[in-house]
Automatic annotation (TrEMBL):
InterPro entries: UDP_glucos_trans. Keywords: Transferase. Belongs to the UDP-glycosyltransferase family. GO terms for molecular function: quercetin 3-O-glucosyltransferase activity; quercetin 7-O-glucosyltransferase activity. The keyword Transport does not apply. The lineage of its organism: Eukaryota, Viridiplantae, Streptophyta, Embryophyta, Tracheophyta. This is UDP-glycosyltransferase UGT76J3.
Length: 464
């Protein structure tokens, strides 16, 4: 971007959804617009999972009061929590914007609102103030195309998913099969469908959609979305590559950096890194299958076991006693890892992931082949793209079994396919680097985004 500070004197108000995989890209986007665009930044957030404000002294933060009770916040049902936020945050946000926009910071008038795509309530609140609203989609464009097709998929009988049809191709969305369609374990089955449809409508009504992806990775999906939506699409990712790794912390948990020195002692491309992100939960039986699959593979492994990830356990009590000790230093377990630094480490050979979008993109950017074990939401679509479209990983069967795990690890680390997969992912890594350089696709879309925000701004100022 030529004039780095074009946004100087204009404020952007951004609101994240309060989950790790959503907070990180939104704060990264805010930092990109601050450092590359020169905008002033205000982050409006829930008290539940509030961001680490000390990492961003250059932002203003405002917590919306009273959105969630402690009991509600302790539920593991992310769809239900998001529904509550969509209902309860409207009033406090309205009150906050009314004050912010009427008193106005004369030096920094608000140019627009940028909301996480699942916070669909923000569209009508912004409309009341004639405040332009952009959407940040924290997932990929390919899974979003599936979300945008939900009514059609229901009409064609693919949704709700039926066990007997899992292997059937979804003719409208190749190469997906019914088993790849997004599902969410919610106590309110209809809630996921409704949340998806409202979020899609919220994108259609917005001033534009910002993506943490890049054109070269998801061109077919972005092209289709441009045909289906009449609002601009700005694929300006990968967001985390705008910054030095670890330069700002967006993590809700404290990463255990001791694993980096453990990795230092391992051979190049030898270690399997295992992490299922911030929300996925597993059973005790699955924990044991993973443990024995890793042990039997004979490859070194770094395994993130979040406290509480095993249903009914505090941490790793279900592992057989002496499990790690008996592996003679071949395994290392942490509660939370500095994932970006881990993926960059030369010792990394593969990433066994649940295929949350952030993890998938981070792996692509570091050229680390993936073992895919998706659980819910967009993860199944992401995994299908990793294994069958980009061909940068292999999928595990749905049921986690030690023999299959051992086989998948060997296939990815040592098998004939390994070289081809590695070559494919290094190719994508190169594209991810190029798109951010001057004249690259993400560089140019960011430039357009800044220009579009500034041109909208003048009409908003008049309206206010
Ligand atoms: N992450 C991390 N340390 C860990 C595990 C995950 O820093 O030990 C980060 C990871 O880098 C990613 C985010 O947490 O940015 C997880 O987001 P993702 O979309 O992959 O999954 P989610 O947590 O939303 O299921």
């Amino acid at each position: 971007m030529e004039e780095k500070q074009r946004g100087k004197g204009h404020r952007l108000v951004l609101m994240p959804s309060p989950f790790q995989g959503h907070i990180t890209p939104l704060l990264q986007l805010a930092d990109i617009l601050y450092s590359k665009g020169g905008f002033s930044i205000t982050i409006v957030h829930t008290v539940f999972n509030s961001p680490n404000t000390s990492s961003f002294p250059h932002f203003t933060f405002h917590a919306l009061p009273g959105a969630l009770s402690d009991t509600e916040a302790s539920t593991v049902d992310a769809v239900h929590l998001t529904d509550i936020i969509n209902t309860r945050c409207a009033s406090p946000l309205r009150e906050y914007l009314a004050v912010l926009l009427s008193q106005g910071d004369k030096e920094d008038p608000v140019a627009c609102f940028i909301a996480d795509g699942v916070l669909h309530f923000t569209q009508s609140v912004c409309d009341e103030f004639q405040l332009p609203r952009f959407v940040l989609r924290t997932g990929g464009a390919s899974p979003f195309l599936v979300f945008a097709s939900f009514p059609l998929l229901r009409q064609r009988g693919y949704l709700p998913v039926q066990e007997s049809r899992l292997e059937e191709p979804v003719v409208d969305l190749p190469p997906l099969k019914v088993k790849d369609l997004p599902l969410f374990q919610s106590h309110h089955p209809e809630a996921f469908y409704n949340l998806v449809c409202r979020s899609v409508d919220g994108c259609k009504a917005s001033s534009g959609v910002i993506w943490n992806t890049f054109e070269e990775l998801e061109s077919p999906a972005l092209t289709k979305l441009r045909q289906q939506f009449s609002v601009p699409m700005y694929p300006i990712g990968p967001f985390h590559k705008y910054f030095l790794p670890g330069s700002t912390s967006t993590s809700l948990l404290t990463p255990d950096k001791s694993c980096i020195s453990w990795l230092d002692g391992k051979e190049n491309k030898s270690v399997v890194y295992v992490s299922f992100g911030s929300i996925v939960a597993i059973s005790e039986a699955e924990l044991l299958e993973i443990a024995w699959g890793l042990a039997n593979s004979k490859q070194p492994f770094l395994w993130v076991i979040r406290p509480g990830i095993v249903r009914g356990s505090e941490w790793i009590e279900p592992l057989p006693s002496g499990f790690l000790e008996n592996l003679g230093g071949r395994g290392y377990i942490v509660k939370w890892a500095p994932q970006e630094q881990v993926l960059k480490h030369p010792a990394l050979g593969a990433f066994w992931t649940h295929n949350g979008w952030n993890s998938t993109l981070e792996s692509v950017c570091e050229g680390v082949p993936m073992i895919c074990a998706p659980c819910f939401g967009d993860q199944k679509v992401n995994a299908k793209y990793v294994s069958d479209v980009w061909k940068v990983g292999v999928q595990l069967p749905n049921k986690l079994e030690r023999v299959e795990i051992e086989k998948a690890i060997r296939k990815l680390m040592l098998g004939d396919e390994a070289n081809e997969i590695r070559e494919n992912i290094l190719n994508l890594k190169e594209k991810a680097n190029v798109c951010l350089e001057e004249g690259g696709s993400s560089y140019c879309f960011l430039d357009c985004l800044v220009s579009d925000i500034l041109s909208l701004k003048s009409s908003t100022s008049r309206a206010l």
